[in-house]
Design brief:
The structure holds 3 protein chains of 3 kinds. Chain A is mainly alpha-helical. Chain A is built from 12 helices and no strands. Chain A has one domain: MetI-like fold (Orthogonal Bundle). Chain A has helices spanning 2-17, 20-42, 46-49, 77-113, 115-130, 133-144, 148-175, 178-185, 190-198, 203-226, 238-246, 254-281. The longest helix of chain B has 18 residues, at 178-195. Classes of the chains: A mainly alpha, B alpha/beta, C alpha/beta.
Chain lengths: 287, 262, 338
């Protein structure tokens, strides 16, 4: 069994490797994850990450001692950007996992049962889709107060309808497949049919969407930080770093350009990876 | 086991009549061939027998019990007695489950009736694999690692896992190559001999049904238009449709071609 | 010289697992008025042979490494894409298994046929019955008339009315007729039909076979009929080539091959088809499975499954041995007996 699984993985990786952009995405994401895991422990100025300031060293240009320069509080931008990766990535992953989990549940129930339940759930989903996600997230964050947990919850709340729609369609298609009919003919109950037969077979599009959405989730977390209702300083987060730096453009460009580039790199990397995963997991969707 | 279908009709909406007053009777231990082209209603009929769709009217008596009126729990128990093998061996097996899990699943679903625990289930899966001509080395493989014929054997093993009395064979060989079809047809015959099953063999392949079936019925536009002993129906179809269909059967003999003129 | 000559064609297809030797030296010659059945089981190479003649295989993954395909004297292996486009839809017509996916659902069938007719008329204005450089309006009108004539020709009732219908308004059998009509527009010399009746019901299949049979007689077409159905071959083919794992193991006129099959594989294949004489449960089956074409067995590829195999069979691919005026068999056992 492991032999067959291993061969499948290698076959998938073979397809993946044929697109060098997917490889670039994989390398970027792997580097980001590594930085988020070990980076905060290795930064040159952990005291700045913890909120310490150094007013004697304000707005230093990038140099060998401070690679990304320092900000208005004399904090090392390199340390903050590296430390921010953990918060941003964690927030992005949380948003996507929460949204995928809830969206899959709603979509699977709606798609499998159909009828009035489907109608009700999908009208509710459509209603959520009509609300601009950033506005909804702002409203929730404003009502519940700023902070990482609330930010994640707020964004996930506006994020799940996409997953619900995707999963509903996939479940409806799979429900008509012969092997699902076979399970019904055997007398399998609904939890078994959904859990054993349908969901494992629609995991690929869900995983692909999760990867594609990761970049945008990170961007949204940063956007909320940027407008000032996301993660609050001193917790370093790319969006709020960018927000503070905005006031010092264009003279002190380095305070904005490095957190901004980090956001760009994360969005770019996850999108390329998502495209690559689609080639591997769902080869029919190509071209 | 006895299966009696009496006056079965199935309508979809107001206009579509999928089954129109279908009556059939299957005898214990026989192979009954149901011949129909696409849209004839044969798929709807199997779904009704399996309890996957309720008929509009009529009765399906299995050992005298009308299965169209069974409650959920009773229908669940009934499902162990009527099983089905599907046409497309590529679509009818869950691609994410191993051969072991596919064949063991019916035993898990019907463990209340069968009373097989984990170890006993694996033993039974190996026994079933042997019955269909596969071996224990195939246990942990996934559907895509099997050929079409082997997949169909797994589909047969899954159907047999719950000791059914009636097996519905829904075009079991029409997706297979000729030599593989021969293997599967021989296998189905030997299984029937050993287990004393009753077969409802659904097909559009007249050559196959002529060989395997004791009795046949022709279904056309939701109606049974002809019914009788196989030899009798093939020797002298009494309806226009029956004559047309039998004449269209491509015999693998150049001398029997209706197209060649001299 | 025959219309189509395939001469010792070798083809490999690349995939992750390696390069599969899909065609291992195919030779076949098809003349006008002949219906050649190319028959064999899944993966034997019959479909790629048809696609190779039309040069429709993308390369890579396909790699031709030997042999030639000559159509009316022209070497298609050397022809460029422009030359092939002039042949396809013109002198080489193709029809495929699934009549549903080969018609564009959003265009009326008339529009689709007019496109084909204009394309064919661009290389040969005589097809539209117009002189060179006729105005577009005249060409359109002629193309439409031709489309209606062809629909009528393939037995579509009230062709004048049906020409403006959409594909979904036709039944499966009627759609296959439309595709045949489309293939006939360019007045092809060769029709490649890949499993043309496999997706159809038996009664509809009989009608399409009748149509194909009549067309050959009346238009002098050459047909390459690719199928797994031995019954269909027996019914309408004049000749048959039996393929196994990338080789033609036996070929000849259909009566001779079906009545006196020489190759052990042909015999096994014919014995596996249920007939009036077949005994329930005792149908002759063929043990083993088709070989892995990435690592094909040496010599005769059928040898590992063959009851008559000797060590010599693994030495070299057996050459075709004539066993009748038109009938040859590639088998050492048959060669020794002859």
């Amino acid at each position: 069994m492991s032999g067959a699984r291993w061969l499948n993985l290698r076959r998938g990786f073979y397809r993946f490797r044929r697109s060098w952009l997917s490889m670039v995405g994989l390398v970027i994401v792997a580097a980001l994850v590594l930085v988020a895991l070990v980076g905060p422990a290795l930064v040159p100025h952990p005291e700045h990450v913890a909120g310490g300031i150094n007013t004697t060293a304000r707005f230093l240009t990038p140099s060998a001692s401070a690679w990304f320069g320092t900000n208005e509080l004399g904090q090392d931008v390199f340390s903050l950007t590296i430390a921010g990766s953990r918060v941003s990535l964690l927030a992005g992953i949380s948003v996507v996992v929460l949204a995928a989990g809830f969206g899959t549940l709603v979509g699977a129930v709606a798609g499998y049962y159909g009828g009035w339940l489907d109608e009700a759930l999908m009208r509710f989903t459509d209603l959520m889709l009509t609300l601009p996600s950033l506005i909804l997230a702002m409203a929730v964050a404003a009502a519940m107060g700023p902070g990482l947990g609330n930010t994640v919850f707020a964004i996930a709340l506006s994020w799940w309808p996409g997953f619900a729609r995707l999963v509903r369609g996939e479940v409806m298609a799979k429900k008509a497949d012969t092997f699902v009919i076979a399970a019904r003919a055997l007398g399998a109950g609904t939890p078994r049919i959904l859990g054993r037969h349908i969901l494992p077979n629609i995991a690929s599009p869900i995983i692909i969407k999760m990867s594609l959405d990761m970049g945008f989730a990170i961007l949204t977390v940063a956007s909320l930080g940027f407008v000032g209702i996301g993660v609050k300083p001193p917790t370093p987060e790319w969006g709020s770093l960018l927000s503070t730096a905005r006031g010092y453009l264009p003279d002190y460009w380095w305070t904005a350009i490095f957190p901004g580039s980090a956001i760009f790199l994360a969005v770019f990397g996850f999108n390329l990876l998502g495209d690559g995963l689609r080639d591997v997991l769902d080869p029919r969707a190509r071209r | 086991m006895s299966l009696e279908i009496i006056g079965l009709s199935k309508h979809y909406g107001r206009d579509v009549v999928a089954l129109n007053d279908v009556s059939l009777q299957l005898r214990q231990g026989e192979c009954f061939g149901l011949i129909g082209e696409s849209g004839s209603g044969k798929t709807t009929l199997t779904r009704c027998i399996l309890g996957l769709e309720p008929p509009t009217s009529g009765r399906i008596l299995f050992d005298g019990v009308d299965i169209t009126r069974l409650g959920a729990a009773a229908m669940r128990r009934m499902r162990a007695r009527i099983q089905i093998v599907f046409q497309d061996p590529y679509a009818s097996l869950n691609p994410r489950m191993s051969a072991h899990d596919i064949i063991a699943e019916p035993m898990i679903i019907h463990r209340a009736t069968l009373g097989l625990e984990h170890r006993a289930r694996t033993d039974r899966v190996v026994e079933l694999l042997g019955l269909v001509g596969l071996g224990p080395q195939h246990l942990s493989r996934f559907p895509h690692e099997f050929s079409g014929g082997q997949r169909q054997r797994i589909g047969i093993a899954r159907a047999l896992a719950v000791n059914p009395e009636l097996l519905i064979l829904d075009e079991p060989t029409s997706a297979l190559d000729v030599s593989v079809q021969a293997q599967v047809l021989n296998l189905l015959h030997s299984i029937q001999q050993r287990l004393g099953l009753t077969y409802l063999f659904i097909t559009h392949d007249l050559g196959v049904v002529r060989m395997v079936a004791d009795r046949v019925a022709l279904i056309h536009h939701g109606r049974i238009v002809e019914q009788g002993d196989t030899a009798q129906v093939f020797a002298g179809p009494t309806t226009e449709y029956g004559r047309m269909l039998l004449a269209a059967m491509p015999e693998p003999d150049p001398d029997l071609s209706p197209y060649r003129r001299g | 010289m025959a219309l189509l000559e395939i001469d010792n064609l070798h083809l490999a297809m690349r995939s992750f697992d390696g390069e599969a030797q899909v065609l291992n030296g195919i030779s076949l010659s098809v003349d006008k008025g002949q219906v050649w059945g190319l028959v064999g089981e899944t993966g034997c190479g019959k479909s790629v042979t048809g696609l190779s003649v039309a040069r429709l295989l993308a390369s890579p993954p396909a790699r031709y490494f030997g042999g030639a395909i000559r159509f009316d004297g022209q070497d298609l292996m050397q022809a460029d894409e422009a030359a092939m486009r002039r042949l396809r839809g013109r002198r080489i017509g193709m029809i495929f298994q699934d009549p549903t996916t080969n018609l564009n659902p959003v265009f009326r069938i008339g529009e689709q046929m007019v496109d084909v007719a204009l394309h064919a008329g661009a290389t040969d204005p005589a097809i539209l019955g117009l002189p060179q450089g006729a105005p577009r309006r005249a060409r359109l009108a002629a193309a439409r008339q031709l489309a209606i004539r062809m629909l009528d020709r393939v037995g579509i009732p009230k062709a004048v009315d049906r020409v403006d219908d959409y594909p979904h308004q036709f039944s499966g059998g009627m759609r296959q007729r439309v595709l045949i009509a489309m293939a006939l527009i360019g007045k092809p010399d060769l029709l490649i039909a890949d499993e043309p009746t496999t997706a159809l019901d038996v009664s509809v299949q009989a009608q399409i076979l009748q149509l194909l049979y009549d067309l050959v007689g009346e238009e002098g077409l050459a047909v390459l009929l690719i199928t797994h159905n031995l019954g269909v071959v027996a019914q309408i083919c004049s000749h048959v080539a039996v393929m196994y794992a990338g080789n033609i193991v036996e070929s000849g006129d259909v009566r001779s091959v079906f009545k006196q099959p020489g190759h052990p594989y042909t015999r096994a294949l014919l014995a596996a088809v249920p007939t009036v004489q077949s005994v329930r449960g005792a149908l002759q089956d063929l043990p083993g499975a088709v070989p892995d074409l990435i690592h094909p067995p040496p010599g005769c590829r059928f040898a590992p499954r063959c009851a008559l195999a000797t060590p010599a069979c693994a030495q070299a691919l057996p050459a075709p041995v004539p066993v009748g005026p038109l009938h040859s068999v590639s088998c050492l056992a048959v060669g020794a007996a002859a």
